[in-house]
Amino acid sequence: MPKLSKAIVDSDIRAAILNQLDIANREGYHKINDRQYGVIVNDANNTPRYVRIGIIVAEERDDCTAQELMDSEIAVYNEKQAKKATKAAERAEKAEKDKAKREAAKKKKEKGE
Question: In whole numbers, what is the pLDDT of the chain averaged over residues?
Answer without folding.
Answer: 91
